[in-house]
Amino acid sequence: MYNNIFKHLERPTLYKQNDEIFWNDEHISKHMLAAHLNPDFDGASRKLCFIDQSVKWISEIIPFYDYPRLLDIGCGPGLYAERFCKTGYKVTGIDFSKRSIEYAKNSANKQGLDITYVYQDYLKMDYSNVFDLATFIYCDYGALSTENRAIILRKIYHSLKVGGKLVLDVFSMVKYDDFEEMKTWNIHENGGFWSAKRYLSLKAHYKYSDNVTLEQTAVITDSEIKEYCIWNSCFTLKTLMREANEAGFHKFAAFSDVTGKAYTENSHTIAVVLEK
Fold first, then answer.
1. Which helix (H) or strand (E) holds 126?
2. CA dist., res. 190 & res. 186, Å (int)
3. What values do phi and psi take at 140, rounded to 5?
4. H or E element at residue 162
């Protein structure tokens, strides 16, 4: 096994895929869900106060009585979906984490909320002229490869009715400029996020051309080595709108984040409201 350890210490090729779909790993998905639900931690979902502000702002500028059917892409455990539903939207949430979708369904049932949750890879969704509003937030768009970003934008475009809107956010060039390349390692004697077993984690941060960053983790146990890559593309408003235009979107408004703060180039994020 350890004959291959050096390949995990090398700089990966751009957009190298993970060894497995880690968000459905029994151990990792449990820790990811706990991170999503932690109200004081913003490494998986944003803090609840920010989510509340986002839903309030979106519902004010794109109200449910004009845009009733909402698609929440990458909905996770339903933190946004539940709030949108309580505001008045008819919500469909889609996510590829089985544990998160199961939690979201149970939570909605307990509260009597009429939300449709779909366990599916959103790159394979197939809606046509169904929704009035789509949300794709927490910068998930930038975690996709160039090819997959084009796919998801086209699918969102086709899922919307004419005049429908998309709320999308990404990391800006401020985030890219602040990102530092580094390599660290750590022994987790009692297990941790990546494994219940004792493991060694080798972590590396890399910057690539075209404003792409990578957070790579190699997880080494007594029996196996697994590698996980978290990619992120950072954007200027110009580069983001070029991709949106190529998918068919033309009208837009720009903000610094999805609470509606005025757009500034000094923000770590860029949020846009696009229209079909």
1. none
2. 12
3. -65, -30
4. strand 160-172
